[in-house]
Write a structure and sequence with these properties.
About 35% of the residues lie in helices and about 30% in strands. It has about 325 residues and is α/β, with parallel strands linked by helices. It has 2 domains: about 5-125 and about 285-305, Rossmann fold (3-Layer(aba) Sandwich); about 125-280 and about 315-330, Dihydrodipicolinate Reductase, domain 2. It has a 9-stranded mixed sheet with strand order 14-13-12-11-7-10-9-8-15. Strands 3-2-1-4-5-6 form a 6-stranded parallel sheet, sandwiched between helices. Strand 2 (about 30-35), helix 2 and strand 3 (about 55) form a beta-alpha-beta unit. It is globular and about 60 Å long.
């Protein structure tokens, strides 16, 4: 069996640890190298990932010396574009942590570089692999709750600290961190695009440079209106990552989704009954497996680079709307 040779560039984002553990367990993958410019993080990877073949402080040196088919980029958000462009130029398939980039121009440049160099590009949105979300989409697209009129959604987490709270490195604060997940889910589930955005955001909970909470209103092209509550309000002891919740209102019924612990409640007028779907899939494991399969099968990944760009557009529109105190009409980039 031919194994896909994968390298990880940076453990600045905490998801890298889970991705690495999942890659180590996959029989059709070999984790050939890890690169990180932070000495403490690099020492941590040496300690925890014994099957990895080599460790580097410079990802370019790693690309020069190692035989690599694909890379997983988990650097600070602002570094995604430089690393991705370098890897695409060297014909490496790319799985990039979200957000794809912190500007629309950079996200578009990554997509173009991947396309021009014939490599696969996948944006890491783990909650796309949530079984409750998949069941909800089936119900919506089959007309199970009729026309979707609106939704109330939320995404909360603990304040991550470090570069996450530095807008120059992260692209924002809680609004950027949490909006991209929900924007991606809604686009996919509704098969529709965000048309208008309004937002209010502030720093209310922590003494940090960025905002730690925000309220967004999204209007989709088919008329669906969605509220999104984002924050870094959870205590450090909070045990769940990916605290995405959705209440979707349709003409014929409602969907209540809790992405962690992955449950979907269905309420329909026509049956006068309540049903529940619960699943315990490993989001990160499914995400990494999809990336490997897309490369091996020479097809577009389930979550594309374009999906990453569209989610960034929504988050950046929210910042613009908050600054201007008015509704912003989205201008979707052509790539």
């Amino acid at each position: 069996m031919t194994q896909l040779k994968v390298a990880i560039i940076s453990f600045a984002h905490m998801h890298a640890v889970s991705y690495a553990h999942n890659l180590e367990k996959m029989p059709d993958v070999v984790l050939v190298a890890i690169a990180d410019d932070d000495p403490k993080r690099l020492d941590m990877t040496r300690e925890h990932f014994k099957t990895c073949g080599a460790f580097y402080s410079d990802y370019r040196e790693m690309l020069d010396k190692e035989e690599i088919d694909a890379v997983v980029i988990c650097s600070a958000n602002s570094d995604h574009v430089e690393i991705a462009l370098e890897c695409a130029a060297r014909k490496k398939h790319i799985l990039c942590e979200k957000p794809l980039a912190i500007t629309i121009e950079d996200a578009a440049a990554i997509i173009k570089a991947a396309r021009d160099n014939g490599v696969k590009l996948m944006t890491a949105f783990p909650i796309r692999f949530n079984q409750a979300i998949h069941e909800a989409k089936k119900i919506i697209q089959s007309g199970g709750i009729g026309r979707v009129l609106g939704a109330a959604t939320s995404n909360h987490g603990s304040m991550p600290g470090g570069w996450f709270v530095d807008p120059e490195k992260s692209g924002g604060g809680a609004v950027m961190d949490h909006t991209v997940h929900v924007a991606d889910l809604l686009r996919w589930m509704l098969e529709d695009e965000v048309e208008e955005v309004y937002a209010e955001y502030d720093r209310l909970l922590h003494d940090i440079p960025s905002e730690d909470c925000g309220q967004l209103m999204l209007r989709f092209t088919k008329g669906t209106v969605v509220s999104l509550d984002t924050s870094w309000s959870r205590p450090k002891s909070y045990s769940i990552w990916g605290d995405v919740k959705m209440e979707i209102k349709g003409e014929k019924g409602n969907l209540s989704i809790n992405c962690c612990p992955r449950t979907l409640n269905v309420y329909r007028n026509e049956t006068m009954r309540h049903s529940t779907v619960s699943a315990g899939d490993d989001h990160d494991g499914l995400l990494v497996q999809e990336f490997v399969d897309a490369v091996n099968e020479n097809r577009e990944p389930f979550v594309s680079g374009l999906d990453g760009l569209r989610a960034v557009e929504v988050a950046l529109a929210a910042y613009e709307a908050g600054k201007r105190r008015e509704v912003v009409v989205l201008k979707r980039a052509e790539v």
